[in-house]
């Protein structure tokens, strides 16, 4: 079969990695794909620098639209990120009847429904394995490997930067600020780490996983997002003593009232698979009614791991480049005409167990008053733990049974009016998985 | 699209599970597949019992050939196991131009090359996700998710029975015999557990994973196989103290001289992902040159988990039932005309680190003599550990650096001629992964 021609938008970390993998493993890939996958054009900002990597035989341009409109190109690989230029190029590529491979979670999380609708109309593929959890083939597992299942929930460590920071905070007892500085020094966090540490990047990815799990449109705008910036070293230490590890999880779960879609720091049992994911690694746990719990673990970012996912998508595209829609896997695992409109639940209605830490004055009656408020708001206490008092103050920690988030917030408001409560209540969610 | 018609051979644990999943999740599956998947005929030993499960509307026969020759059937799902009747039916189904889905690792490990060659000629699919690691979509991950990579090695816990027994031996300090009895009582081991405990089942699966990784024919007959029957509780305890956990691993690795293909008890670092796979669960670690290490974890057996894999295969088949070969994923990940003839290495040439335990008389010069033999056979000692002597005897434990298996065996032969060595040397392999 004749080679498939690729147009590469962006030759940064992932673009450069894609180029390298396609070249280094060209024979191995062709042995699998049954045809060669050749980069025919690249769009970059710096032509001279690009030439050093790709040489003189590849058409290099500074205008992505050149690549998109190039009639020789079968597949456009978008690795520039963002949702302005990238979006124009992706939409134009689709309009031109070209297939698209992208690692752009921000684009798909915010404009995915529009992108997939256009692609469906033009009978082209849009593949995005690299957009979630880097080299781990989690999109493929969910779109194709677990098709027998009613997926019940997905919980994932899908941001390496925050997992690195949390691993450092735990193992070294560092504060968030110090661990972030370490992460930046070692290249695990960007100069502006906002998207990572505030949970936005994880929420982008989670929105896609939620659609794949439940066959609903991508709804990043409905996600509840909390980052790790306010997490205190002492809560990580308390959690550890209680047998838990704090991880930034993306969780999406089907409930009777709708779908949970939430990113937040979470206490998970220290012996669980997710608790043992260290450093910048990623892992996604998917629970299906037939298969039970499955876990997918690997590098969630980086040049070659992400390129591994991009190139796997290219092999899929190469195989079905001239096939029709019926022969292809639907973009979001479910046929476009079979998507559901199950609502995303308001965070107040989500049920979870909670970790609450209260700094209180050490005097009689404190526990009684707090316990009364929890009882009155229907919150059942699973266990309790009190630190020895220092300077007449002490920390009380409660682990609650499952409760409605709205009820917990209500209880916290009441507790904070008590005159012996010395600082805002720390509230973290607990998941047994 | 019109429904795809399935003929089910066998309605035991996995067959029954497949029936249940196809029915319980029929709508969810159709939302994904774009068409319904309907069981049109089943072959069973006990028609009356089958009727209780599938009702009166499905054609039930006691002769598998009836199903295979039924012109209404698009796909034959073989879930009877073994390689006599099952083989006849699978080969006949292929000859009839029907697609095949099977969970039969014994059949594919011993006759896979013949089956795939016939299927290639007849332009039909043979899907076998359920044959390895139950519900974990490991075949899909390796055939499609990691196509960008030169796979370097695969190491897996791919037999739940032995992992359950080893977990019990470790956590309860049980002997192999007692742990096996527990496993049988709890339904994790069969009445005749030979295939599991001798490592044959794991080797069947490993042979398939090796072909998927390296694009070589299935070569179960060349696998080196050691089970767990001679494993002593004290070695598990010693390993634990040294920071290792003993697991039955299937390992296949590309080396310059060829491919390693081996199943044996292995010491792995206790903090590694594989060490923490408990009970009857399975996990497979795949290392690719681009992606690095990835892990796939889940239930490796059982009614519904295995059915999850069977039905996922059916959805794949449903999608490409009328496509041609170019649009489909090759049986063993690599195109049939691009298979390699890389040799499987003799076990003597395999390099590994080793755990050696020697029961010796407690007298001066013992260590010097042993250390001399190891040095003379080019074996470098990583660490050493000696138990306090009891009744003038003691255990010495060596962890060696990587050495050639042949050299280790040679050293052991020499050591066993020393008059102060009181019992056969225990030798286990150590992998850092």
UniProtKB/TrEMBL annotation, chains A, B:
Pathway(s) this gene product operates in, as recorded in its UniProt entry: Amino-acid biosynthesis; L-threonine biosynthesis; L-threonine from L-aspartate: step 3/5; Amino-acid biosynthesis; L-methionine biosynthesis via de novo pathway; L-homoserine from L-aspartate: step 3/3
Binding residues annotated for NADP(+), in chain numbering: 9-16
Protein EC: 1.1.1.3
UniProt-annotated catalytic positions: 205 (proton donor)
Key words, A-Z: Amino-acid biosynthesis, Metal-binding, Methionine biosynthesis, NAD, NADP, Oxidoreductase, Threonine biosynthesis
Enzyme's top EC category: oxidoreductase
Residues the record lists as binding L-homoserine: 190
PROSITE patterns, A to Z: ACT, HOMOSER_DHGENASE
Annotated binding of NADPH, by residue: 105
GO molecular function terms listed in the Swiss-Prot or TrEMBL record: homoserine dehydrogenase activity; metal ion binding; NADP binding
UniProt keyword Metal-binding present: yes
InterPro entries noted in UniProt: ACT-like_dom_sf, ACT_dom, Asp/hSer_DH_NAD-bd, HDH, HDH_cat, HDH_CS, NAD(P)-bd_dom_sf
Keyword NAD: yes
GO biological process terms on file: methionine biosynthetic process; threonine biosynthetic process
Chain segments annotated as transmembrane: none
Domain ACT: 355-429
Reported cofactor(s): a metal cation
Similarity comment text for this entry: Belongs to the homoserine dehydrogenase family.
NCBIfam families in UniProt: PRK06349.1
Protein name in UniProt: Homoserine dehydrogenase
Organism of provenance: Paenalcaligenes hominis
UniProt lineage: Bacteria, Pseudomonadati, Pseudomonadota, Betaproteobacteria, Burkholderiales
